[in-house]
Design goal:
Layout lengths: L1 H22 L12 E6 L3 H15 L2 E6 L2 H10 L8 E3 L5 H6 L5 E2 L12 E2 L2 E2 L8 E13 L24 E2 L7 H14 L1 H14 E3 L6 H7 L5 E5 H9 L4 E4 L6 E9 L5 H12 L1 H9 L3 E2 L12 H5 L7 H18 L2
Parallel strand pairs: 1-2, 1-3, 8-9, 8-10
Antiparallel strand pairs: 3-12, 4-12, 5-6, 7-10, 7-11, 7-12, 7-13
Helix pairs in contact: 2-10, 5-6, 5-12
Length: about 350
């Protein structure tokens, strides 16, 4: 009997240990720390890891960064909709993919404390979703990166039509709209500005000018830095990051170009919503914003000064109007038609 009791006691103790250990696994944030947080982002991997590590150092927990192009991540979240794997989604070449995602059931409303008193539109820029489905954490400006050893500032393109100049044939790169949020923004903005018929004609000609269309939004800027292209389409910070690393590149702010926030969203039914919220709050804190600023992004927090030479005030002088309703209605169709109409 004593031996049976000892065996039963041992079994109960072992079972209790296993259950305790299992209760500490998984994505929930119960307990002392924020738990394990799954972080989907197409933004610069080194910068995103730095954000994750800074959060972990300050708040504990574990942030798992999953990097891929914007459209790849959106497709992944759609595939995971019955069993979401991400807690937050940060970045996508601006607000357009987030606007398109609102009705897809993959993101959830959450308004961070800092953004509670923001107007939906501040100084002509939409900074948050009217129903709280995303919040901007920085400002992106789409423009042209050029290699300063191959192109002078005077001859560099100043408008989107300048990219069609025969002198740039075989010397341009832009990213693939089927994979990149940066390129999707480029395509949609030009369709809004030109109308679809003229827009498709424009991109047919622009594609003939290009020597490559990499999947990554940062790919064209890296190609320009390596001398593989003279001109690349990209965001402002991409050029200034390369410049800070000693590369011979600079940025042109074109006339009539998208200037918009790059948002963060809570993922619908993610495994660790409380941890996700805590990470979103961190991204908007001065600590999180300073990391973005040190990577030459324009932070949305006015108390943080960026290293970028491009001010928001200067960028707004070239900002084009974006018809968000048109984007929501046509985002998927335009992206799907890219391979059919442009080759």
């Amino acid at each position: 009997m004593k031996n049976s009791f000892k065996l039963m006691l041992s079994f109960v103790l072992i079972l209790g240990f296993v259950l305790t250990a299992c209760s500490g696994e998984g994505g929930d944030s119960s307990g002392d720390g924020p738990g394990s947080i799954s972080f989907y982002s197409p933004e610069t991997p080194d910068m995103t890891r730095e954000l994750a590590e800074a959060f972990e150092e300050k708040h504990g927990g574990e942030v798992n960064v999953n990097y891929a192009g914007t459209n790849v991540l959106v497709n992944r979240m759609m595939a995971e909709i019955d069993n979401p794997q991400a807690d937050i989604w940060y970045g996508g070449g601006g607000i357009l993919p987030f606007e398109n995602a609102v009705d897809k059931g993959i993101i959830a409303p959450y308004t961070p404390e800092m953004a509670e008193d923001w107007e939906v539109v501040e100084n002509g820029v939409k900074v948050k979703h009217q129903d709280g489905y995303y919040t901007g954490i920085e400002v992106f400006v789409l423009g042209f990166v050029y290699n300063t050893e191959l192109v002078s500032e005077e001859e560099a393109p100043k408008t989107w039509d300048d990219l069609l100049d025969p002198k740039w044939e075989g010397k341009i790169q832009f990213s693939n709209p089927a994979a990149s949020g940066t390129a999707t923004l480029m395509v949609l903005s030009q369709m809004m500005a030109r109308g679809e018929e003229e827009g498709w004609e424009y991109f047919q000609k622009l594609t003939e000018q290009a020597n490559a269309t990499p999947d990554s939004g940062s790919g064209p800027t890296k190609a320009v830095a390596m001398g593989e292209a003279h001109i690349g389409v990209g965001f402002d910070f991409m050029a200034y990051e390369q410049q800070a690393n000693g590369e011979s590149v600079d940025f042109i702010l074109p006339e009539e170009t998208p200037v918009l926030v790059n948002p963060v969203s809570l993922v619908e039914e993610g495994p660790n919503p409380e941890g996700g919220k805590e990470l979103i709050e961190f991204l908007l804190s001065e600590d999180g914003q300073q990391i973005l600023a040190d990577w030459y992004h324009i932070p949305i927090n006015p108390n943080v000064e960026s290293k970028t030479p491009l001010t928001l005030e200067k960028a707004q002088e070239s900002a084009m109007d974006l018809d968000i309703d048109w984007v929501i209605e046509n985002y998927d169709r335009i992206r799907d038609e890219w391979n059919e109409k442009v080759n």
